[in-house]
Structure prediction request, 489 residues.
Amino acid sequence: MNALLGTNLAWLAGVLVVLAIDVGALIYIPRGRKPTAAMAWLLLILLVPLFGLALFLLIGNVRLPRRRREAQARIDASLRERLADEPRADTTTWPRWLDRVAQQNEALTVLPAVDDNTATLLPDYQGSIDAMADAIGRAERFVHVEFYIVAWDDTTRGFFAAMEAAVARGVTVRLLADYISSRKIPDSDKTFAELDRIGVQWAWMLPVQPFKKKYQRPDLRNHRKLVVVDGRVAFMGSQNLIARHYDSPKNIKRGLQWQELVTRVEGPAVAQLDIVFLADWQIETGEDLWAEHVPGSQVPKPDATAAVTCQLVPSGPGYDTENNLRLFLSLIHGATERVILTSPYFVPDEAMTYAITTACERGLDVQLFVSEVGDQGLVYHAQRSYYETLLRAGVRILLYPAPYILHAKHFSIDDDLAVIGSSNMDIRSLSLNMEISMLVRGASFVDAMRAVEDGYRDAGRELTLEQWHREPRRATFLDGLARLTSALN
Prediction:
């Protein structure tokens, strides 16, 4: 075979391979995928076939392995029977649209709305960790801890000491930590050695250990944050179990500090938070702890005149649909007066963008709190790419000042509805991460959230369309480029 023929055959083989990749991508990728995500993947593969295909094989599957999804479905089926006779809120007395939202949440997650709860907001970073430690210090039976990031440092030593003292009293303490996010923290080995030393039973969430037959798309993560003590008190929100600068030399050098929001919960909603932990524990360890569960009917009702109704909405790639996205969209579409959103990473999909801008066109007061600076460059620029569209529609964008990262995740609707939890309003949280949100109906809770929002507003500044138009072209070019990559989910 002469050299020219060999070269031609090599070119022909290359063309056929690329053609096969392109045709296969056109057939397979659009199936069951949002048009924007499908177009982004197809564009990448058509432009750089081999790299695009390799990346798609690595992170193209937006669902957890079938085994895990089937385990979640079995647990949900069992929960339907367990919760059938449990007391629930009479949502038929609510506005009809809101009653339908509660029904939607229950259909997707099994968990109903429940009355007779109190939910207290804890906006102080160290104060919220200390409040959790204090509750653990009063534990008599069990403590359940679940965090995206767990670290043993100067900020969390009191929390670890409370867990150690609880174990010494004979209390069972269990802890779940996300595998990748907790392991990448400096000195993470010391954190989990300390858990072993003090006798905490702990396990990884979504471990990436292919040689142990534990593998899924590496960036599908469990982003939930919650603590349950004795089935009587619980905590949930945006905050991880780590120092305010996340023990990161880069953050320390920039002087970055995280601003969070946690809520302390009492009442039947505590049982729902524990259900989320028990389901995650069973899926990760295979251990069935449901005999220890304290049903909502047995959870002590707090003595409070300002009781609120709560409904937990877990979401993530273990479900067939984006539960949190459907909740957020339903509430924004149902709002009649105002929508106030707080999200550190705001990269909405098309449906969310239309919901927010349409709310403005209906005459609602729509505000968005975000950070003035970002800790993740790609996400920060993708977020900025939406500012002009939002500002033109009439959304007020409030920038929380540097060096703080406003990491709180919540929003309020009209005068008596709010959501708080772990879910950002970005494509990752809405589609790829396991999250937990709590819908709260009660004017007292919304009043407290309004006070928190007022604090953000007083501390920061408003971004106007005129100011945005003065942004340098180089920055807005990077924004648009980052926006294209955000659709690769």
The chain has three domains: 7-59, 66-102+112-308, 323-486. Residues 340 and 367 are 5 Å apart (CA to CA). The mean pLDDT is 91. The first strand starts at residue 114 and ends at 122.
